[in-house]
Amino acid sequence: MSFDTGLLFWLLLLSSSSLCFGSELDIQCLKSVKRSLIDPSGILRSSWKFSQDGTTNSICNFMGVICWNPDENRILGLSLGSLGLQGQFPRGLEHCTSLVRLDLSNNSLSGPIPSGISWQLPDLSSLNLSYNRFSGEIPVNISEMTYLYSIGLQHNKLTGSIPGKFALLSRLESFNVSDNLLSGSIPVALSKFSTSCFSGNQGLCGVPFDSCSTSYGDYSIGIIGAAVGFVVGFVGALYISHCLFFLRDAPALRLSHT
Asked: How many CA atoms within 13 Å lie on the side-chain side of 75?
């Protein structure tokens, strides 16, 4: 066997081995996701059927599974929106090593967004968790997912502030956190997005809303004014009571001197 033929054979073997290994990881990923979610409608249960004899079914035909190529079981995206799914953020997604799109929108998922989401899904370009019941703070390390161009977190129960490090997401073209319980200032880098992307969060301030400093200044002035008013009123009351006491006792004092 010539050197060129041997090299070509080795590359083909390596490629097929890599695809097989990648396929096994993707299958492991889907099995973990299926186990970790509550599926009242039985959609995943009826569609995501794994063979029992060790052979590999084509996961590319599974409901909501998008593959890079129909001839290989490498998952590009999971589109699991509006399936009535319950539970918390699915486990095992780190095994979907080629995943770039994740859509879990319009379900009944709850609990926190995992703090380790950046290492679980480092290559993600689109994240849609909207219209669920996710709570807790937005993980700061989402800012490390530098391929993200779309983030949808609207209509959840997220609290805390929008991480300032989101300024690092230079590819971000779509961003929505409306109708949550967020507070604090909106990072300047996100001020390019419209008001509707932040509405429904009573505690948010800054562009495109009112300036945080103005609101805080007005609040401080109000507090200081109330304090000054209390002190002035207290001193005035003491002065008046002292005058009344003096006027009341003045005739008695004059008589005692006569």
From this structure: 29
Buried b (16+ CB within 10 A) or exposed e, 9-18: eeeeeeeeee
3-state secondary structure of 112: strand
pLDDT, tens only, 12-64 = 333 443 344 448 899 999 999 999 999 999 999 999 998 775 445 689 999 99
| Among the listed residues 178, 165, 171, the one whose alpha carbon sits nearest the alpha carbon of residue 209 | 178
Q: What angle do CA 62, 66, 68 make, to 5 degrees?
A: 125
Distances (CA, A) of 143 to 48, 59, 116, 146, 163: 32, 31, 12, 7, 8
Q: In terms of residues, how long is the chain?
A: 258
- Rounded to 5 degrees, φ, ψ at 101 are -135, 130
- Residue 113 three-state SS: coil
